[in-house]
């Protein structure tokens, strides 16, 4: 059997030994040809990255045999950068590499102005040999001030990877002048090629958290980014295009539920008279307030459990003209689907009750396990129960820097509907 994170060739076996469904019979071996097990007949399906612990044992990286993984990875990074140059507008913060969406399964890279944030999600991507060409290409393309690795502890446990902290993996030498185009003046220095135990952790003084802050702009709205704090890779870039669309339709008094650092709220402040944001962790709201100051906006932030607040507000007859619902993923696995749908129904029902006639509901779901039809069906059921009629103004997926690949449903996880409620 192949080792953790190995590059393997995937073959389909056909012939006498095969059972009824040939499409499911795929075997993997270490890529060297002499180790391929001979079946009656085999057909190559391509090359994959193997995980010894994940439910997803194989992630296809090419339909062909891969001669040089390093060269392939370099080409993929360059293609991902070029794709964004073509399609991303009005921002200096966007997703540069979106895992399967950019044919680099297990790797996420986000750019926040002059800081790059990288996240590894598989055994294969956790390998220094794999990351080295990625980092070099990224340095060459962007000449960033720093690069951090954001650790998803849950995913690392699932992949049976060693524990580690979010931390700096590369920093431009403070004494050096701006880098040359080739990136030669940059120091691919601390940590990224060293064993994990030697990597600097976020608690080491050298990391000076303040220097890991930057400011980015999207749709003309300014945000502070703290590379070593916050959720996910730091901001919800997949909502960038929805922020602008929501601001186009929203008006009057607005409520942004699950506001995090104010992504929707700050955009809504452009078109609405009064905006209130709700979230539970205080640090998110403190960051939201900083962002509001940065943009010279007055926004009310409420620290509360959104479910409790919506229940209290809807029971007491509180009304709004525009409401945004952008909850965290309710279904982390298929098993949680029914519970997740109940959660969406409850939230949307409450929001619908609180909207004045002609109001705007921006309702989102980032649960991959809840598909678009189920999600919209749930919102429709909430409309029925609350005796409201909904017209769909926009039905949207993640921003274009999170490419959705037909045939890979995991790449289409975000739903955002903008609805006119009568
Ligand atoms: N709309 C945000 C992203 C929201 S992510 C943006 O565009 O940036 C989901 C948010 O829900 C997180 O900020 C999380 O802190 C918050 N959250 C999770 N459970 C919550 C609860 N029960 N009550 C209030 N906020 C909650």
Written description of the protein model:
With 422 residues, the chain is an alpha/beta fold. It folds into 3 domains: 7-62, no CATH class; 69-211, RNA methyltransferase domain (HRMD) like (Transcription Regulator spoIIAA), CATH 3.30.750; 236-421, Vaccinia Virus protein VP39 (Rossmann fold, 3-Layer(aba) Sandwich). 26% of the residues lie in helices and 27% in strands. It is built from 9 helices and 18 strands. A 7-stranded mixed beta sheet has the order 14-13-12-15-16-18-17, sandwiched between helices. The chain has a 5-stranded mixed beta sheet with strand order 5-6-7-8-9. A 4-stranded antiparallel beta sheet has the order 2-1-3-4, with no helix packed on it. α8 (337-354) crosses α9. The longest helix is centred in the N-terminal third of the chain and has 19 residues, at 69-87. The protein is globular. The termini are far apart. Residues 18-35 and 177-208 have low confidence and may be disordered. Bound molecules: S-adenosyl-L-homocysteine. The site of S-adenosyl-L-homocysteine has 18 residues, from α5 and α7.
Rg calc? 23 Å
Shape: globular
Helical content band: 25-40%
The CATH C-level class name of the largest domain: Alpha Beta
- The H-level CATH homologous superfamily of the largest domain, spelled out, is Vaccinia Virus protein VP39
Strand segment count: 18
Low-confidence runs of at least 5 consecutive residues: 18-35, 177-208
Q: Give the rounded overall mean pLDDT.
A: 86
Order of helices and strands: EEEEHEEEHEHEEEHEHEHEHEHEHEE
Estimate what percentage of residues fall within beta strands.
25-35%
Question: Major beta sheet, specifics?
Answer: 7 strands, mixed
Structural class: alpha/beta
CATH architecture of the largest domain: 3-Layer(aba) Sandwich
What are the distinct ligands in this entry? Answer: S-adenosyl-L-homocysteine
User: What is the CA–CA distance across the termini?
Assistant: 60 Å
Number of helices: 9
What name does the CATH topology of the largest domain carry?
Rossmann fold
What is the count of distinct domains?
A: 3
């Amino acid at each position: 059997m192949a080792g953790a994170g190995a590059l393997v060739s995937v073959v389909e076996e056909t012939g006498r030994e095969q059972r009824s469904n040939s499409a499911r019979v795929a075997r993997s071996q270490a890529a060297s040809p002499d180790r391929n097990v001979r079946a009656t007949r085999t057909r190559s399906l391509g090359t994959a990255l193997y995980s010894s612990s994940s439910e997803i044992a194989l992630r296809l990286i090419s339909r062909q045999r891969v001669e040089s993984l390093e060269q392939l990875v370099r080409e993929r990074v360059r293609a991902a950068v070029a794709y964004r140059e073509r399609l991303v507008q009005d921002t200096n913060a966007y997703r540069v590499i979106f895992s399967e969406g950019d044919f680099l399964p297990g790797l996420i890279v986000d750019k926040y102005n002059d800081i790059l944030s990288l996240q590894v999600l598989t055994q294969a991507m956790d390998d220094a040999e794999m990351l080295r060409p990625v980092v070099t290409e990224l340095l060459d393309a962007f000449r960033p001030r720093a690069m951090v690795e954001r650790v998803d502890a849950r995913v690392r446990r699932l992949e049976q990877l060693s524990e580690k902290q979010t931390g700096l993996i590369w920093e431009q030498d403070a004494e050096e002048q701006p880098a040359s185009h080739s990136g030669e003046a940059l120091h691919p220095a601390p940590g990224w090629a060293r064993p994990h135990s030697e990597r600097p952790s976020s608690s080491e003084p050298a990391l000076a958290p303040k220097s890991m802050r930057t400011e980015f702009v999207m749709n003309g709205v300014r945000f502070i980014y703290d590379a070593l704090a916050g959720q996910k890779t730091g901001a919800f870039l997949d909502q960038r295009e929805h922020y602008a669309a929501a601001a186009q339709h929203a008006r009057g008094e607005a409520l942004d539920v699950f506001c995090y650092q104010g992504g929707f709220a700050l955009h809504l402040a452009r078109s609405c008279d009064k905006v209130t944001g709700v979230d539970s962790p205080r640090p998110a709201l403190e960051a939201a307030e900083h962002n509001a100051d940065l943009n010279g906006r007055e926004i009310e932030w409420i620290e509360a459990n959104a479910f409790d607040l919506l229940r209290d507000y809807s029971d007491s007859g509180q009304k709004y003209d525009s409401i945004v619902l952008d909850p965290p993923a309710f279904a982390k696995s298929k098993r949680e689907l029914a519970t997740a749908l109940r959660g969406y129904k409850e939230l949307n029902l409450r929001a619908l009750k609180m909207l004045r006639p002609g109001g705007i509901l921006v309702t989102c779901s980032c649960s991959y396990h809840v598909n678009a039809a189920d999600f919209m069906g749930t919102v429709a059921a909430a409309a029925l129960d609350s005796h409201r009629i909904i017209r769909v103004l926009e039905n949207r997926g993640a921003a274009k820097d999170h490419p959705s690949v037909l045939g890979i449903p995991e790449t289409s996880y975000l739903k955002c509907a903008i609805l006119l409620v009568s």
